[in-house]
Amino acid sequence: MAAPAATYDVDEETVDFASVLLSRSSAPDLRKTDRTRLKLVAGLASELQSGVERSGLKVAAVTASAGVAHGTFYRYFDDIRSATEALAEAFSAFVREQLEGAREGEPGSRERVHGATLIYTRVFRANAPLMRCLFDLGGEATAVSRSLQTLNWEWNMRMAASIAKRRAVASGGRPQPPAELLPVAYALGGMIDEFLSQLYLRQDPALEHLADDEAAVADLLTELWCLGAYGEVRR
Q1: Is the pLDDT at 2 greater than 60, yes or no?
Q2: What DSSP designation does 109 have?
Q3: How many angstroms separate the Cα of 106 from the Cα of each of 30, 38, 48, 180?
C-alpha cells in the first residue's frame, strides 16, 4: 500500500514527523480514509519517538495513540511490519523534501551545503528513533530498502553533479560526469550520517557538548564536506 502523501505544509520550526503527520491528518481536503491512515502512521511514529523499540510495537498501542478502534488498523495494514515500512517511506520522503527546501546560495556553495546540513541535523535530532528505524530497514532486503536505496542514489547523484559543476567553475575546465563523483558524494553523505548517529543515536560522551548546538554541528560538518569535495572551504 502506498505511503501517505509526501508533501507536508510545516512551519520552519516543526520537524518532529509525528506532529507533522497529525497536522496533515487534520487538513480539510483529505478523504476520511486518508485521514485515518495518516493518524495510524502518526500513532506508529509517536510510539517509536517515545522510545518503544521496533520489536516492541503493538497494534493496540498504535490504535490507542491514533484514537481509532483496534480493528481499524487491519483495514489499512496487514501487520505492524507493513505499517512500519509505510512510515519509513513517508519519513524518507519528508527528509528529502526538507533538504530540497535549502535554496540559499549556489548549488555546491558553502552556503547551500550549510543550509542543507543544518536542516538535516535538526530533522535527525528531532526524529532520532525514526532515523534509527530508517537505517535498520534500509539495511534489510525488502521492497522498502530498495525504495530507500533509490532515493539515496538520486540524492547523491544530485550532490555529485553539484560537486562536478563547482569544481569545473574553479578550474575553468569541463565538468566531470557526475557518475565519476558519485563515490565522493556517498562518502561525504556517509560521514554526516555516521557523525549524527554517534551524536544522537549512540550519544557518544565525547560529543555530548555538541548535542544541543545544531548550528555548531552544521558548521563542523559543512567544513568537512567542503574540504572533502573541493580540498578547501569555498564560499
Answers
A1: no
A2: S
A3: 37, 36, 37, 21
With contact defined as beta carbons under 8 Å apart, do 134 and 148 qualify?
Answer: yes
Question: Where would I find the beta strands (DSSP E) of 45-100?
Answer: none
| Contact (Cβ atoms closer than 8 angstroms) between residue 149 and residue 142 | no
| Domain segments of the chain as ranges | 17-84, 101-230
33-72 pLDDT tens trace: 999 999 999 999 999 999 999 999 999 999 999 999 999 9
Residue 232: burial class (beta carbons within 10 Å; 0-12, 13-18, 19+) = exposed
CATH number assigned to the domain covering 17-84: 1.10.10
Measured distance CA(119)–CA(54) in Å, rounded = 25
CA proximity to 163, closest of 141, 180, 140, 146: 180
The residue count for the chain: 235
CA distance 117 to 181: 19
Indicate if the pLDDT at residue 163 is higher than 50. Answer: yes
CA 109, 111, 113, 116 dihedral sign is negative
Give the model's confidence band at 13: pLDDT under 50 very low, under 70 low, under 90 confident, else very high.
low
Instruction: Give the number of other CB atoms < 10 A from CB of residue 193.
Output: 15
